[in-house]
Write a structure and sequence with these properties.
two-stranded parallel ribbon, 18 strands, single chain, 249 residues, 1 helix, disordered N terminus, 16-stranded mixed beta sheet, mainly beta
Length: 249
């Protein structure tokens, strides 16, 4: 018998005997949770990170401190499904893998402590409040969906990208601000004082900035840019009914 025929017979025997490996789709265990309303806390010590990624309906408080910690506050029948994992330099606040979730009336809060933060990604209907960071070198945040960022910080360079129905309300200061908005977003930075700023808006977004030295604006599609202070305005590119005006609130 030639080797090829012998191999075919062996493979056929393995299949008949049930020994052949078979690819199977992962089984996702269904989980249906209606929040109990009884809140409990669960603390986790995690690996070092400098960025945070949160989605779904997480409500996150971010504050400076020694070490890297996450405290979940959630319903007692839900808290065990919340997960905090670090990939690279990013802390991901999410749900445990392996389940198909159907949840309602749940609380998903997290208190995140870290020495210094460099970036934040928010999506879904998540919210974050940041406070206590006074001398950051660079802070970057990207918001999508209906997410919201509030709080205060001081940084040398601040970059904000606000998309969809996202909104940002910050106070504090930055030497340089780079702000991008699209999709009916709102950026209220009237008490966030910057030396120089570049603002790029489209798709009916609105921004209020407080600039001391120079403000550059590129805006289109009914977007509105309001400014406080007396900056020099350059360069300015307005199209498709966009507007630029001093803030009179």
């Amino acid at each position: 018998m030639n080797p090829q025929a012998r191999t075919s017979i062996i493979l056929l025997a393995l299949v008949i005997s049930g020994c052949a490996p078979a690819a199977q789709a992962p089984a996702w265990e269904p989980v249906e949770i209606n929040g109990s309303g009884k809140l409990v806390s669960q603390s986790k010590i995690v690996a070092p990170f400098e960025r945070i990624d949160a989605g779904l309906i997480f409500d996150v408080a971010i504050r400076p401190g020694d070490g890297y910690r996450v405290e979940f506050i959630a319903d007692d029948n839900w808290v065990d499904f919340l997960a905090a994992r670090v990939e690279g330099t990013t802390l991901q606040l999410t749900l445990k893998d392996g389940y198909s979730y159907n949840f309602s009336n749940v609380t998903m809060r997290a208190v995140v402590t870290l020495p210094e933060i460099s970036g934040l990604n928010l999506s879904g209907s998540s919210r974050a409040r940041i406070s206590g960071f006074e001398s950051l070198e660079t802070f970057e945040a990207e918001l999508t969906g209906a997410s919201r960022l509030t709080g205060s910080l001081t940084s040398d360079t601040t970059r904000l990208a606000v998309f969809g129905n996202g909104s940002v309300t910050l106070s504090g200061a930055s030497r340089f601000l780079d702000l991008e908005g699209c999709g009916n977003s709102l950026s209220d930075l009237q008490t966030f004082i910057t030396g120089n700023a570049v603002v790029e808006l489209s798709c009916s977004s609105t921004a209020i900035v407080h600039v001391l030295d120079q403000l550059g604006v590129e805006a289109s599609q009914n977007s509105r840019v309001y400014y406080r202070g007396q900056p020099s305005l350059s360069p300015i590119d307005l199209a498709e009914h966009a507007s630029l005006a001093p803030f009179e609130g």
